[in-house]
Amino acid sequence: MDFAPYQDTAPENTRALSPPPPRSASRSPNPKSPPPGRGTTDPFLSSTLPAPSHFTDDPGRDGRGFGNADLEGGRMGVDLFETSLPLRLDYEAMLAYLLLPPAGGVLLLLTEHKSDYVRFHAWQSSLVFTAIFILHLIFSWSKVLSWILFVLDLGLIAFLTLHAYQDANNLDRLELPFFGGLASSFVDAE
Fold first, then answer.
1. How far apart are the first and last CA of the chain?
2. Contacts of 162 (CB under 8 A, 6+ apart)
3. CB neighbour class for 35 (10 Å; exposed up to 12, middle 13-18, buried from 19)
4. What is the C-alpha to C-alpha distance for residues 183 and 16, in angstroms, rounded to an integer?
5. Which of 93, 105, 129, 183 could form a Cys-Cys staple with 122, CB 3.0–4.6 A?
6. Rounded to an integer, what distance in angstroms lies between the CA atom of residue 7 and that of residue 179?
7. What is the per-residue pLDDT for 67?
8. What is the CA radius of gyration of the chain?
9. How many CB atoms sit inside 10 A of residue 59's CB?
10. For the whole model, what pTM was predicted?
11. Torsion from C-alpha of 29, 34, 40, 45, nearest 10 degrees
């Protein structure tokens, strides 16, 4: 059984041979070894080792090596910063808050399938701004409260957008109380 998924062949076929024993005159000859008069070959010179390019993480090569193992059945070459859309990860996470929340979050949930970071921000945006939209409906009878909520909305959008952009370098998540934990549980359950 091969527990090292990055190997192409069974280890028994390509493992390194033991060094030859030191030759001494006092030792009796091994009956299975060739007579000393014949030309013996050094096992270290005859063994073929894989080229250094075999152990690369570059996906443009032959697809073998340490970084490209199929460990989870179907998630070949997983890249944490890869997205489904042709945008950078930080820009997509920002769009979850900037694209008319909560509609931008829902749109990203429908289109983004690779990045858990973007999906977290899309879930959090959808949940938070749906709740805020309901608050707007409740307080729509008062113009003053509606404007105060609107200014708080803009401040929250700016704050969350900034953190989504800055935290994309190390994939940190700024979780808001209640909604952030709920968004994380949704992403973890997917």
1. 31
2. none
3. exposed
4. 50
5. 105
6. 44
7. 46
8. 30
9. 13
10. 0.58
11. -90
Place of tokens 């096992």: 43
Structural tokens at position 84? 């489904």
154 Cβ contact partners less than 8 Å away, ≥ 6 residues apart: none
pLDDT in tens, 70-124: 444 444 555 777 888 888 888 999 999 999 888 989 999 999 888 899 999 999 9
Cα–Cα nearest to 93, from 74, 79, 114: 114
Q: What SS3 string covers the chain? A: CCCCCCCCCCHHHHCCCCCCCCCCCCCCCCCCCCCCCCCCCCHHHHCCCCCHHHHCCCCCCCCCCHHHCCCCCCCCCCCCCCCCCCCCHHHHHHHHHHCCCCHHHHHHHHHCCCCHHHHHHHHHHHHHHHHHHHHHHHCCCCHHHHHHHHHHHHHHHHHHHHHHHHHHHCCCCCCCCCHHHHHHHHHHHC
Residue 179 CA to its chain's centroid (Å): 24
Q: What residue type is 41 in one-letter code?
A: T
